[in-house]
Amino acid sequence: xxxxxxxxxxxxxxxxxxxxxxxxxxxxxxxxxxxxxxxxxxxxxxxxxxxxxxxxxxxxxxxxxxxxxxxxxxxxxxxxxxxxxxxxxxxxxxxxxxxxxxxxxxxxxxxxxxxxxxxxxxxxxxxxxxxxxxxxxxxxxxxxxxxxxxxxxxxxxxxxxxxxxxxxxxxxxxxxxxxxxxxxxxxxxxxxxxxxxxxxxxxxxxxxxxxxxxxxxxxxxxxxxxxxxxxxxxxxxxxxxxxxxxxxxxxxxxxxxxxxxxxxxxxxxxxxxxxxxxxxxxxxxxxxxxxxxxxxxxxxxxxxxxxxxxxxxxxxxxxxxxxxxxxxxxxxxxxxxxxxxxxxxxxxxxxxxxxxxxxxxxxxxxxxxxxxxxxxxxxxxxxxxxxxxxxxxxxxxxxxxxxxxxxxxxxxxxxxxxxxxxxxxxxxxxxxxxxxxxxxxxxxxxxxxxxxxxxxxxxxxxxxxxxxxxxxxxxxx
Length: 477
Ligand code: ZN
Ligand code: MN
Hints:
- This protein is of the alpha+beta class.
- It is built from 15 helices and 16 strands.
- The protein has helices at 54-66, 163-180, 220-239, 285-293, 299-310, 314-321, 324-336, 340-356, 369-380, 386-399, 403-410, 419-431, 433-440, 447-458, 464-475; strands at 4-15, 70-71, 74-75, 78-81, 91-94, 101-110, 113-126, 130-134, 139-143, 150-156, 192-202, 212-217, 247-252, 257-263, 273-274, 281-282.
- A hairpin with a 4-residue loop joins strand 8 (130-134) and strand 9 (139-143).
- The structure holds zinc ion (ZN) and manganese (II) ion.
- Manganese (II) ion (MN) binds next to loops.
């Protein structure tokens, strides 16, 4: 057991899903040929003037509401000055003393326990460009496509004491932003990036230790590992009588270690001053109310509705709501076939199993919720056996198509007439006098043997119920 406990706070940058950038009309979409989505404003040419994107302001207000923040009735923009080659203006338009959102809360659940994380502030700012380092030719190239993409920066209070809490929080934030429709949260594309402030103190101490900041972590795995490694490093320092120096550190995933980038700067190092080109905003109550009303149903409410209205188990509802793509798929499915429980079961039991096996990909499914629902309905109404439904689903995953067409083509329906059933079962009974004797002398266990044989021979052409009834009838003759 360690003699220290860690304390952490987060700064999360999330790119907003606006079509254009925050101060110009260039596309804010990810990617593109380097420097093809730039104009004089976002590449920082002198004499250009920024115009604030209204959608971006609307989105940060939504973010504030879903994280239970106070929305400032008066908000303004500031210049954060620093020189770095990914920032052609040499300042970032951000918000210092008057951010849009202040003091919120977000509920998380960590290993079964509820916890409230406090939000200090959320502000709106612009993203910087991207540097591509070419180690072979020893040059660095600048791509300014990302310059001016709107970001919200979510700053938490130092409320985290384990990596598990941090991960649970980021997952919750991702869900909230996705459901509110303001960020796609693709960490692999940098839509969400996380800085972790981290310090350790002796157990029982009221004071926080000196903190370091881990910069730009962009996967949950990297975040968890970086926290673990940094806590170890700080512990070793303190144990050997040294001090932790306040600094910004980078996590090297390959080496599994953090290295110093620079000594930590304070706010005054950035020489913040009000941006003279962007006027402050005063929101009216009507404007804020309208934005608040436009927020769609959030994850917690959805889980509650699925449990209350549809009778789905809480754990299952959590799984479905835990991935917005799955949740949208589920909604589309129940719109087609009103049997939420059966659809939820088949999504979790079969579709998500295939996804976890890597056989299917939610982003590239070749069928929609409606087709999936038809398949579930065929099963529920004894038109397709469970085994054949799996065959149909596999075909849908591989090639797409409607379950009806696939079942027609491959003759996978349960047959209405019982001639085949009778023929098959009669034959099995005639060929197995010994088990028949056993059954008749009271050994019920052999019934499973007949079921197995019949299922194998019928290949889904009769429903399990019909098979069962017919075998029972024949054996009692
Ligand atoms: Zn531009
Ligand atoms: Mn920032």
